[in-house]
Amino acid sequence: MPSARLLVLFGSQTGTAQDVSERLGREARRRQLSCRVEALDSYPVVNLINEPLVIFVCATTGQGDPPDNMKSFWRFIFRRSLPSTALRQMDFAVLGLGDSSYAKFNFVAKKLHRRLLQLGGSALLPMCLGDDQHELGPDAAIDPWLQDLWEKVLGPHPVPLNLDLSPPGVLWPSKFTLQFLKDTPSSGPEELCAAGTDPQGPPSELQPFLAPMVSNQRVTGPSHFQDVRLIEFDISGSGISFAAGDLVLIQPENTASHVQQFCQALGLDPEQHFTLQPREPGVTCPTRLPQPCSVRRLVSQYLDIASVPRRSFFELLACLSPHELEREKLREFGSARGQEELCEYCTRPRRTALEVLCDFPHTAAAVPPDYLLDLLPLIRPRAFSIASSLWAHPSRLQILVAVVQYQTRLREPRRGLCSSWLASLDPAQGPVRVPLWVRSGGLTFPKTPHVPVIMVGPGTGVAPFRAAIQERVAQGETGNVLFFGCRRRDQDFYWEAEWEQLQARGCLTLVTAFSREQEQKVYVQHRLRALGPLVWELLDGRGAHFYLAGNAKYMPADVCDTLLSIFREEGGLSDPDAAAYLAQLQRTLRFQTETPCPGGTAPELCPGVPAGGPADRGSGFTSRSLGPEHLDPLHQVLVEDGLGSGALGKPQGARTPDSEPLLGAPAAAPPWASRTEDEEAQQEAEECPICTEPYGPGQQRLALLNCGHGLCMGCLHRLLGAAPGDLGRVCCPLCRQKTPVLEWEICRLQEELLRADGPPRPAPPTPPLPARHGRGPWASLEHRYQLRFLPEAVGGRGCLPFLPCPPCLGAWLWALRGHGPCARRLALLSLLALELLGLLLVFTPLLLLGLLFVLLDGSRR
């Protein structure tokens, strides 16, 4: 083996980053490199100082948050006390996985790359930013990046002459071996685990609480298109405690029919027991898997046979396949050139791993049991908003579950694993226990008394607000305003009787929107706009908090548009002031949102506010805030004040390696640097989401865009410099909106680009908050001619501007506005000139006629 030790550390939320990391490990072993693959939180981070070569693979979740299995590492690596030379001996590379439809695209990877540079690390090559929106997926960026990576790695550490590079089709040993037992254990661990309903310590993923299901009730009408369940669990004696906004995580199981079908396809005996042994030292067995274990339990509770397989699944199947035709097709799906065919065959129709194995029967029958854990990922828990409060329902936990079912071009409907499994459980037929545990969620409700809250929760998005209302009513709070929307009152109006009772007691103001009960569809944003004065008075006059939860497709963007219009019309704010006001609400955590994304679909961006997004995608629940400031302190990034992207200077109060070892010390790590939530939020708000550099003077000062996003002037110059001849059609890099820059900003930047060779000017100070004012001169002029060119009829056209020109010329000048700010001003000035010419044509004959009368009167005298 070469002397190089390669370490691959991953942070993954749904398994995508872990899959890429394992692929890196296989590629390294093919090149005869010693490689370890570990999760970031599983690796002792204090030993990072001794690693010569590290590859970081990390996804971005939520509002630019790190995944759950790298939070401890995230907090450690951003400690202020770390010296700037801590990682000077380490070469590293960063591979990020993200989705460019989200505002903070690959935010975690960008910040990690910059932080490693600050700590003295040497980057082997620029970071890779995989984009799930690419037609070929993240592999479109990963494949060429890996080629450059291996060239860099093998440069100082070439493969010895006596060792050859293994071809891609070579089958490597499995990570584990399954040793089947001849005798079936008399009392398996299944019964022991089922009996242990009282966990030692607080329930967690490693030791969930087996909660008895009390009720499983359908709350939608029988003719409603969707099955929505209100499920209640008994958590007595579990030690579980939760507050409004928290989440419950549930570990689902595969259906019995799918388990039987899988065992038949692979020729496995579901009743046979085995023990699992790691093949290599340093590899640990899955902690949740009991020893010994039955094949049925392994397949039903651990292997995710209902997931959509990834590229590595087909690569390994191709190595295991004895059938020539099936092997060639599997190799095509596992190759870089076959990704379009793989997307058409598997990704778009959401074909499951079980269905793929049934499509390749000869290969499935030849899969050795040792490779089951290499081939299939483990089932991941699903998160749901808690829909009840312990104040109103002691020792009970309720959730509102929409059963996921949809049709693709495949004959069998696609079903959500967890929601379908929960819907199939019936406590009336016998005792039912569900493994679950609780964690904090993305919504935090005000602790200060008498602070009103505005909650917008259409559909199942109302679930966390029910818990909040129950908790606030029990504490004597009456300032609760709920906007609820659904299709029909008699079909999907959840908790109707409870809302009406609270409203009658004066504890709740309920505003409903039933979209299908009239010809014109009415949604929550329409009701919100109709009550604009009330919303503005609560937000601006009484300091209310605003919460949004529900379908992540269009509703969040529409609600944000409505809020901006309320700020403009009721508050008298201009467009940039309204966006700044909404950003201020986000910074102070007075505007929060939580959006469930079925199937891992990405929510649309919210115009007017920065939106976040998960990158490591998967079915279940995602919780996020639309603003970059809504981050749990655990997720915050500690950026040194006044530092650029260069090496990190010695922070104030930092300990040096001579005084106390930090990285690599055998003793316990020093305590974390403590910061308040407000400081963390403010710090996060002062960084550019593109380059992740902190805002400052010069090129790092903040530039506000029309769409509400902000970025530094350096990134904005690079964006505009890419298309200097057509500035008005430049897209915002965060939300892809056209003409993103404020009009005054784009003209000033155009002037700066034209005199780029001249002497630099000092940057003007940025005001804390723009003053309220009316329309500017150009906006007023545009509004003047807007009515003139409306396509529909407008009353009182006699008062409209008179333009003495053919209608086609006026329409052409009006359409010219969309070609940029300069063209907009030229068009408006031309229309103004035409209007003045019209006035001149009207009044000139009158003046001449008046002059003629004066002359005639003088001649008579």
Summarize the structure in words.
It is built from 27 helices and 24 strands. Among the domains are: 5-155, Rossmann fold (3-Layer(aba) Sandwich), CATH 3.40.50.360; 453-594, Rossmann fold (3-Layer(aba) Sandwich); 704-752, no CATH class; 801-860, no CATH class. It is an alpha/beta fold and 861 residues long. The N and C termini lie far apart (121 Å). The longest helix is centred in the last third of the chain and has 40 residues, at 821-860. Residues 688-736 form the RING-type domain. Interacts with CIAPIN1; as part of the cytosolic iron-sulfur (Fe-S) protein assembly (CIA) machinery. Interacts with DCPS. Residues 596-627, 643-685 are annotated as: Disordered.
- Give the CA-CA distance, first to last residue: 121 Å
The rounded Rg comes to 31 Å
Strand segment count: 24
CATH architecture of the domain at 5-155: 3-Layer(aba) Sandwich
pLDDT averaged over residues: 77
**CATH superfamily grouping of the domain at 5-155:** Flavodoxin domain
Q: What profile does the largest beta sheet have? A: 6 strands, parallel
CATH class of the domain at 5-155, please?
Alpha Beta
In terms of DSSP E residues, the strand content is 5-15%
Query: Tally the helices: what do you get?
Result: 27
Global structural class: alpha/beta
Shape: globular
CATH fold-level name of the domain at 5-155: Rossmann fold
Proportion of residues in helical segments = 25-40%
Low-pLDDT parts are 188-198, 597-685, 723-728, 739-744, 756-761, 769-774, 791-799
EC number: 1.18.1.-
GO molecular function: flavin adenine dinucleotide binding; FMN binding; NADP binding; NADPH-iron-sulfur [2Fe-2S] protein oxidoreductase activity; oxidoreductase activity, acting on NAD(P)H; zinc ion binding
Subunit structure: Interacts with CIAPIN1; as part of the cytosolic iron-sulfur (Fe-S) protein assembly (CIA) machinery. Interacts with DCPS.
Binding site for FAD: 350, 382-385, 416-419
